[in-house]
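Board notes, transcribed. Complex of a protein with adenosine-5'-diphosphate.
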Amino acid sequence: MRKITTIILSFIMILSLVACGNTKKVESGLKDGQYKSIQDGHNGKIEVSLEVKNGKAEKAEIIKQDETPGLGTEAIEKIVKQFNEDKSLNLDDVTGATVSSKAVKNGLKDLMKQAGATEEMLKTSEKKTERKIKDSYECDVVIIGAGGAGLSAAIEAAENGAKVIVIEKASLAGGNTLVSGGGINVAGSKHQKDRNIEDSAQKFYEDTLKAGDNMADPKLVKVMADNSLDAANWLINDIHVEFMEDRLQQFGGHSVPRALVPVGNKGTELINKLLKKAEKLNVEVLYDTPAVEIFEEKGAATGIKAKNGNKDINIKANKGVIIASGGFASNVEMRKKYNKNYDERFKTTATQFSTGDGIVMAEKLGAKLRDMDYIQVYPTCNPKTGIISYVANSRFDGAILVNQKGERFVNEMGRRDEISNAILKQDDSVAYLVWGNEIESVGKMTEIHKKEFEKMESEDLIYSSDNLEDLSKHFNINVENFTKTINKFNSYVEKETDPDFDKTGAFKPIKTGKFYIQKIAPSTHHTMGGIVINEKAQVINKDGKVIKNLYAAGEVVGGIHGTNRLGGNAITDIIVFGRIAGKEITK
Ligand code: ADP
C-alpha cells in the first residue's frame, strides 16, 4: 500500500499539474532541451519550438509559418502567447481560423510530448475549465467592437478615468483595421514637409468631398480633415505606432501624397499598439462575445446584452454605449437589401465579422441611417479568395492595368469605383496589373509583401520574367497588342501625359526587367453607409435628435465618405472619430 502511495506521490511530484487560476499549469518533470514540431496549417507548414529549462516549459515560439496575415497569423500568435502565459494546453480555437488554431495546438501538444509529458499529463492540461466571462458586468462605458475605432475610443475614455469594457465578436481584436494596409491620410505631416509637399486640411477636405460626389456630410468631413494631423501625432507619440520613414503614399483621388504607412504596411502595427495601450489602461476586452442588443431607458442607452456561447451577458454602462462594430461588406443579404447589385457574385476583402450588427441594433433604438446603398468595391483583389492584394499596391508606384486583349482600359489611379466598374466590363471580369523594375524598385511591393507574392505565384496569379513578351504569353494575352500597349504607354511616360485615359499619379516606364504581371478582380470592400452621427459622434435619431448616451464611430457610421471612400481615409476616419467618441462620452 505504502509503495503504491509513494509511486502515486512521486508521479504527482514529477509530473505535477498545478491548478493556476482557471488553467492547469505544467509545473515540472519535463526534460530540459529545445524541441521542434512541424504541423500542417491552413496555407502550409507551421513550425513551433519549445524551450524547456529546469524541468519547466520556458518559452514556445513560432519559427516558420505561412498562414493568412490578419487572421491565421494572428490566431497562432495569440495561441502561443496564451500558452506562454499559462503554460497550459487549455487553449481555445480562434473563430474563423480553426485550421491554423488546431495546427498550432497540435504542435504545442507534440512539443510537450517530446519533452516527456505523459498522455495523462497532456489530458489534464487540455481540460476545459470554466470560462472567465461572467453573467453581468457594470462599467462606465461599453464599446461594441475591438477594431481601430473601438480601441481608439476605449483608450480615450480610459484616459479620462472611465472603467471601459470592449466586447468583441471575434476571438481576436482588429477587425478590418487589422487586415488593412494601415495607411492613414494626414494633411501637413512631417513626411510631407520633408518632401516639400504642400498640403492643408482644406485640400484634404476638398479631395474627400469631391471623391464622394459631394454626397458626404461636409461637417463630418471637416472634422476628419482638421483632426488628421493630431490623430497621426497621437498614434506616433502616445500609442508608439511606427510609420515607415521612406514611404509617403498617394492613393487614387488624392491631389498630393499624404498617406503615412505603418511598418510592415499592415494594420497589425496599429492594432497591436492600440491593444497594448488599452490593456495598460485596464480596459477589459471580452472576446467571442457578440453584442446582440442595446438597452435603452427613457430615450438613453444604458448598456448591452451580449452572448458568449449560449450564455447571456448583461453589461450595464453608466455613461453609455459606443458602437464601433464596423461595416457590413461580408453580409450578402444585407448588401442585397440595400443595393441588389452587390450580390453573391462578389467576394469580399472584409473579415467574416463585418455583418452590420451595430447598424441593426442602432436602428432598433430609432437611429437614422444614411447612404446604405453606397458599397465600395476594391479593384485589385485575389480573384480566387477575394482578399485584397498588397503586392498590387505597385499600382500607386505606376503599374498599369491591361485586359485579356492586352489593352489598357482605365485610368489606373482613378477612383476605386471607376476602376472596379471598368474591370467588371472586361472579359471574365478580371484584369492584369503590369510593372517592371523601374516601378518595383520604388515601392518594393514583392519584397515587402513577400509571403503574399510567393503564395500568388504558387496559385498562378502572378508571374515574373526578364522578358516582357513572356508575361502576356503566360496569361494567354494577345502578345502583339500587349507589346504595342506597353510601348505606347512608355512614350506617354516621357511627357507625363496620358491622352488615352488621363492617368494621374506616378509615371514610370516599363522597360527594364524583372517584369511582373498579376491577375486581379474587384471585391466588396467598404460600406460607406451607416448610422447618422453629429460632430461629437453622438447617434442621431429619425427626428434629427441625439439619442442620449449612444455614440458611434468607424465604418459603422454613414456620411463621412459619400458615394466613395478614398484609400487611406478609413484609418483617418476611425482614429479621429473613435477618439472623439471616447472623449465625448466621458465628458
Ligand atoms: P472600424 O474600422 O470601424 O474600427 P473594424 O472592422 O476594424 O471597424 O472593427 C470592427 C470590429 O467589431 C471587428 O473586430 C468585429 O469583429 C467587431 N464586431 C462586429 N460585430 C460585432 C458585434 N455584434 N459585437 C461585438 N463585436 C462586433
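The longest strand covers residues 311-323. The first helix runs from residue 2 to 14.
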